[in-house]
Amino acid sequence: MEDLYKIVERPLIIEKSAMLLQETNRVSFIVNKDANKMKIKEAVEKIFKVTVLQVNTVNVKGKERVFG
């Protein structure tokens, strides 16, 4: 069970994800970079006891910071 929480790290709580939850019943998570769609689906189904229909993933690069 502990291994599942290493795949699904935490929910993504931003305005867009809140809107998706209300309108289309979709939930956004921050997940481990090494996890594939099948692992993510399996972890979410076991943790929350729901049926996952589809998993979409996006890799987002961090912003560059300028110092000085």
Notes on the protein architecture:
With 68 residues, this protein is α+β, with helices and mostly antiparallel strands. The chain contains three helices and two strands. The longest helix has 12 residues, at 37-48.
Any key phrases for this structure?
68 residues; alpha+beta; two-stranded antiparallel ribbon; 3 helices; 41% helix
**Widest sheet: strand order?**
1-2
Largest sheet: 2 strands, antiparallel
Question: Any idea what the shape is?
Answer: globular
- Give the count of helical stretches: 3
Q: How is this structure best summarized?
A:
The protein is of the alpha+beta class and 68 residues long.
Q: Which helices and strands appear, and what pairs or packs with what?
A:
Blueprint: H1 2-7, E1 8-11, H2 15-24, E2 29-31, H3 37-48
Antiparallel strand pairs: 1-2
